[in-house]
Specification:
The chain has about 150 residues and is α+β, with helices and mostly antiparallel strands. The chain contains three helices and five strands; from the N terminus they run αβββαββα. A hairpin with a 7-residue loop joins strand 4 and strand 5. The longest helix is centred in the first third of the chain and has 32 residues. About 15% of the residues are buried.
C-alpha cells in the first residue's frame, strides 16, 4: 500500500513538474527566438479577452526587415486588465508611445512588440521540480531507513 501511494505521488508531482517545465521551456524558446529589433508602426489597437476574467491590449503593426514589410499582431502579456472597460480606457497611453518590433532573424515574419523574460513560468517550473526532487529524496531516505532495520 505504501509503495502505491508513493507511486501516485510521483506520478502527480511529476506530471505537474513536466507541465510547468514544458511551459517554461516554450516561453524561454520564444524569448530567445526573437533577437534584433526594428522600428514598428502600429496601425490598430484593440482589447482582447485572454480568459473569462482577464483582458489584454492587442496591437496590429507593421515593420520592415531587409526592405520587406511584414504585418503582425501582438497581445501584450502585461499589464492584464480585469475588465474590457479598464483596458479600453488605458488605450490612449499605449497609442502615444513609439514601438519597436523584435523579430526572429531566421523567420522575420515572427515578431512581437513586447519581449519579457518569463520569470513567473521559470519560477513555477523550479518550484515544482524542487517538490518532485524533495519527494524523491524523502522516498529514498525512508527506504534506506526501512532497509537498515
Amino acid at each position: 500500500m505504501k509503495s502505491k501511494s508513493w507511486l501516485v505521488l510521483f506520478l502527480v508531482s511529476g506530471s505537474i513538474a513536466l507541465w510547468f517545465s514544458g511551459k517554461a521551456l516554450q516561453d524561454l524558446w520564444t524569448y530567445f527566438r526573437v533577437g534584433p529589433s526594428v522600428a514598428a508602426k502600429v496601425v490598430g489597437w484593440g482589447v482582447q479577452e485572454i480568459s473569462s476574467s482577464e483582458f489584454g491590449i492587442e496591437a496590429a503593426y507593421e515593420y520592415q526587415v531587409n526592405e520587406r514589410t511584414y504585418s503582425a499582431k501582438t497581445v501584450f502579456k502585461q499589464p492584464v486588465y480585469l475588465n474590457s472597460y479598464s483596458a479600453e480606457k488605458d488605450l490612449y497611453k499605449w497609442e502615444e508611445q513609439t514601438w519597436r518590433a523584435w523579430y526572429d532573424p531566421k523567420s522575420p515574419s515572427f515578431s512581437t512588440l513586447q519581449k519579457l523574460f518569463p520569470f513567473k513560468t521559470c519560477i513555477q517550473a523550479g518550484v515544482t521540480l524542487g517538490i518532485l526532487f524533495y519527494f524523491a529524496f524523502v522516498n529514498v531516505f525512508f527506504k534506506r531507513k526501512e532497509n537498515a532495520q
